[in-house]
Amino acid sequence: xxxxxxxxxxxxxxxxxxxxxxxxxxxxxxxxxxxxRQIYKETTIGTAVPDPQQLAEVPHHFIxxxxxxxxxxxxxxxxxxxxxxxxxxxKYDVVVMAGGSGLYINAVCEGIxxxxxxxxxxxxxLDTKFRKEGIxxxxxxxxxxxxxxxxxxxxxxxxxxxxALEITIQTGRPYSSFLTHKKKKRDFQVIxxxxxxxxxxLYERINSRVDLMVETGLxxxxxxxxxxxxxxxxxxxGYKEIFAYFDGNISKEEAIDLIKRNSRKYARKQITxxxxxxxxxxxxxxxxxxxxxxxxxxxxxxxxxxx
Length: 307
Fold this sequence. Notes:
Blueprint: E1 4-9, H1 16-26, E2 31-33, H2 52-57, E3 60-61, H3 74-88, E4 94-98, H4 102-109, H5 120-133, H6 135-145, H7 147-152, H8 158-171, E5 189-195, H9 199-215, H10 218-224, H11 240-246, H12 252-275, E6 282-283, H13 288-300
Parallel strand pairs: 1-4, 1-5, 2-3, 2-4, 5-6
């Protein structure tokens, strides 16, 4: 294989954006975002979209490219990114992909199981049931209809439960029966990298980022998006806490503290996700020379790039 995809993962606030830009400049290429929230047009501050200067340094793809009103998932992302890579590989031997959404990254690198399209009516019906009857109701449905998924799924994550129920009800087959976990063949070589740093420093960076978001208008952005609060991305960290404040359930100070706490919790989950894959070597974001050397060594083993 003479084409390469450098995948840069890691927790939130670890410096993936700036590191990806440096890698892209070194290899004279472009960047594909693997962030499941930055892909939406309406969100900017709460999703930490790269600033205009960063976007101008290197061409980026899948940044604020679709509307919150558009149904989107990892399977669609896989299809869209592979199509984009086909075009980019006509110009470049190396492309950089960076982000913290492990599911999106795996969809591109290894593929995900092909799942049927769900009728919007089924999705709406299940979502209404969840809102009226609570998570225990849909847990019980999943336990009855697909005990295998029930035994494995995160029972605190209503989105995962709803997804399994959607497929099961749509097809009449358990969601678990569609999960083959077979890796798909790709016509490019994946070079994995992951960023991390001292945990306390990472937490300080997260707290500072949240403070900056608040200063630059996070609450105003959330207010403007309140009418779309039922979309999945607005149920995530940075928005759900502000909506709780708007609803009068917590104070503004409590909302900010919760955003910081939940962001730190999310960072820990991201680190755990990437550590499960032993193919990721870990780097400090300051080790850009070591990262470029690592990638160049692999690339040069397959092609004359850089010689």
